[in-house]
What we know:
The chain is mainly β and 150 residues long. It has one helix spanning 2-15, and strands at 21-22, 26-27, 33-41, 48-50, 55-64, 71-79, 82-86, 109-116, 124-134, 139-149. 9% of the residues lie in helices and 47% in strands. Strands 2, 4, 6, 7, 9 and 10 form a six-stranded mixed β-sheet that branches. The longest helix is centred in the N-terminal third of the chain and has 14 residues, at 2-15.
Amino acid sequence: MRGFVIFVALIISISGITYSREVPFEKCASPCGELDSVDVTPCDGEPCVIRRGTNETIGVTFTPNEVVNSGKIHLYAIKWGMRKELPLKNPYACKGYGLTCPLKKGIAQTLSFTDTVPQDVPSVSLKLQATLVDENGDSVVCGIIAVKIV
Length: 150
Protein backbone atom coordinates (compact mmCIF):
# COMPACT_ATOMS: atom_id res chain seq x y z
CA MET A 1 0.00 0.00 0.00
CA ARG A 2 2.81 2.40 0.88
CA GLY A 3 4.38 1.83 -2.56
CA PHE A 4 1.06 2.69 -4.21
CA VAL A 5 0.83 5.97 -2.26
CA ILE A 6 4.39 6.90 -3.29
CA PHE A 7 3.55 6.04 -6.91
CA VAL A 8 0.43 8.26 -6.86
CA ALA A 9 2.38 11.09 -5.22
CA LEU A 10 5.06 10.77 -7.92
CA ILE A 11 2.44 10.92 -10.71
CA ILE A 12 0.84 14.00 -9.13
CA SER A 13 4.20 15.75 -8.77
CA ILE A 14 5.17 14.91 -12.35
CA SER A 15 1.89 16.35 -13.64
CA GLY A 16 2.75 19.64 -11.92
CA ILE A 17 6.13 20.03 -13.63
CA THR A 18 6.58 23.23 -15.60
CA TYR A 19 7.34 22.41 -19.22
CA SER A 20 9.69 24.36 -21.42
CA ARG A 21 9.34 24.07 -25.14
CA GLU A 22 11.32 25.30 -28.10
CA VAL A 23 8.64 26.94 -30.19
CA PRO A 24 8.41 27.67 -33.90
CA PHE A 25 9.20 31.26 -34.78
CA GLU A 26 9.23 33.61 -37.72
CA LYS A 27 12.32 35.69 -38.33
CA CYS A 28 11.92 39.35 -39.14
CA ALA A 29 14.50 41.81 -40.46
CA SER A 30 17.63 41.63 -38.35
CA PRO A 31 20.73 42.41 -40.39
CA CYS A 32 22.99 42.52 -37.33
CA GLY A 33 22.34 39.02 -35.95
CA GLU A 34 20.79 35.58 -36.34
CA LEU A 35 17.90 34.19 -34.28
CA ASP A 36 18.77 30.62 -33.24
CA SER A 37 15.89 29.47 -31.00
CA VAL A 38 12.96 30.58 -28.83
CA ASP A 39 11.89 28.68 -25.69
CA VAL A 40 8.73 29.37 -23.68
CA THR A 41 8.14 28.16 -20.10
CA PRO A 42 5.56 26.91 -19.38
CA CYS A 43 4.44 25.66 -22.77
CA ASP A 44 2.76 22.35 -23.47
CA GLY A 45 1.38 22.84 -26.98
CA GLU A 46 1.30 24.97 -30.09
CA PRO A 47 0.57 27.75 -29.82
CA CYS A 48 1.79 28.16 -26.25
CA VAL A 49 -1.02 28.95 -23.85
CA ILE A 50 -0.15 31.88 -21.61
CA ARG A 51 -2.27 32.21 -18.49
CA ARG A 52 -3.17 35.55 -16.96
CA GLY A 53 -1.76 36.06 -13.47
CA THR A 54 1.09 33.57 -13.98
CA ASN A 55 4.81 34.01 -14.58
CA GLU A 56 5.92 33.23 -18.11
CA THR A 57 9.53 32.97 -19.29
CA ILE A 58 10.71 33.42 -22.85
CA GLY A 59 14.31 32.55 -23.66
CA VAL A 60 15.79 33.76 -26.93
CA THR A 61 19.11 32.41 -28.20
CA PHE A 62 20.76 34.48 -30.92
CA THR A 63 24.16 35.21 -32.42
CA PRO A 64 25.12 38.84 -33.09
CA ASN A 65 26.96 39.61 -36.33
CA GLU A 66 28.58 42.64 -34.70
CA VAL A 67 29.75 43.80 -31.27
CA VAL A 68 26.74 45.15 -29.38
CA ASN A 69 27.70 47.69 -26.69
CA SER A 70 24.14 48.24 -25.47
CA GLY A 71 20.66 47.41 -26.63
CA LYS A 72 16.96 47.90 -26.08
CA ILE A 73 14.13 45.41 -26.33
CA HIS A 74 10.89 46.28 -28.08
CA LEU A 75 7.88 43.98 -27.63
CA TYR A 76 4.81 44.11 -29.88
CA ALA A 77 1.42 42.39 -30.00
CA ILE A 78 0.23 41.61 -33.53
CA LYS A 79 -3.45 40.93 -34.25
CA TRP A 80 -5.43 41.37 -37.49
CA GLY A 81 -2.33 42.77 -39.19
CA MET A 82 -2.00 45.58 -36.63
CA ARG A 83 1.06 45.92 -34.40
CA LYS A 84 0.95 47.58 -30.96
CA GLU A 85 4.03 48.13 -28.81
CA LEU A 86 3.71 46.70 -25.32
CA PRO A 87 5.30 48.53 -22.38
CA LEU A 88 8.27 46.90 -20.68
CA LYS A 89 9.31 47.75 -17.12
CA ASN A 90 12.92 47.50 -18.26
CA PRO A 91 13.71 47.84 -21.96
CA TYR A 92 17.52 47.65 -21.47
CA ALA A 93 18.75 44.30 -22.79
CA CYS A 94 21.94 44.17 -20.71
CA LYS A 95 20.23 44.86 -17.37
CA GLY A 96 18.32 41.94 -15.88
CA TYR A 97 17.93 39.62 -18.87
CA GLY A 98 21.07 37.50 -18.47
CA LEU A 99 23.13 39.39 -21.04
CA THR A 100 26.43 41.13 -20.31
CA CYS A 101 27.39 43.91 -22.71
CA PRO A 102 29.30 44.26 -24.85
CA LEU A 103 27.95 41.24 -26.69
CA LYS A 104 30.67 39.66 -28.81
CA LYS A 105 30.34 39.15 -32.54
CA GLY A 106 29.74 35.51 -33.52
CA ILE A 107 29.16 34.27 -29.94
CA ALA A 108 25.71 32.83 -29.15
CA GLN A 109 23.82 34.73 -26.43
CA THR A 110 20.67 33.85 -24.48
CA LEU A 111 18.27 36.56 -23.37
CA SER A 112 15.78 35.41 -20.73
CA PHE A 113 12.62 37.41 -20.02
CA THR A 114 10.26 36.54 -17.15
CA ASP A 115 7.15 38.52 -16.29
CA THR A 116 3.65 38.10 -14.93
CA VAL A 117 0.83 38.32 -17.44
CA PRO A 118 -1.59 40.98 -16.14
CA GLN A 119 -5.07 39.81 -15.11
CA ASP A 120 -6.72 42.52 -17.23
CA VAL A 121 -5.30 41.21 -20.52
CA PRO A 122 -8.18 39.81 -22.62
CA SER A 123 -8.29 36.17 -23.75
CA VAL A 124 -6.98 36.23 -27.30
CA SER A 125 -4.79 34.44 -29.82
CA LEU A 126 -2.09 36.68 -31.24
CA LYS A 127 1.51 36.92 -32.28
CA LEU A 128 4.26 38.43 -30.14
CA GLN A 129 7.19 40.15 -31.83
CA ALA A 130 10.36 40.92 -29.94
CA THR A 131 13.14 43.03 -31.40
CA LEU A 132 16.55 43.77 -29.89
CA VAL A 133 18.10 46.93 -31.29
CA ASP A 134 21.68 48.05 -30.73
CA GLU A 135 22.98 51.43 -29.62
CA ASN A 136 22.62 52.71 -33.22
CA GLY A 137 18.97 51.63 -33.49
CA ASP A 138 19.83 48.72 -35.83
CA SER A 139 17.99 45.43 -35.36
CA VAL A 140 20.27 42.78 -33.85
CA VAL A 141 17.63 40.09 -33.66
CA CYS A 142 13.89 39.92 -34.29
CA GLY A 143 11.42 37.08 -33.96
CA ILE A 144 7.68 36.42 -33.88
CA ILE A 145 5.86 33.63 -32.01
CA ALA A 146 2.19 32.67 -31.80
CA VAL A 147 0.56 32.55 -28.34
CA LYS A 148 -2.89 32.14 -26.87
CA ILE A 149 -3.73 34.12 -23.74
CA VAL A 150 -6.35 32.61 -21.42
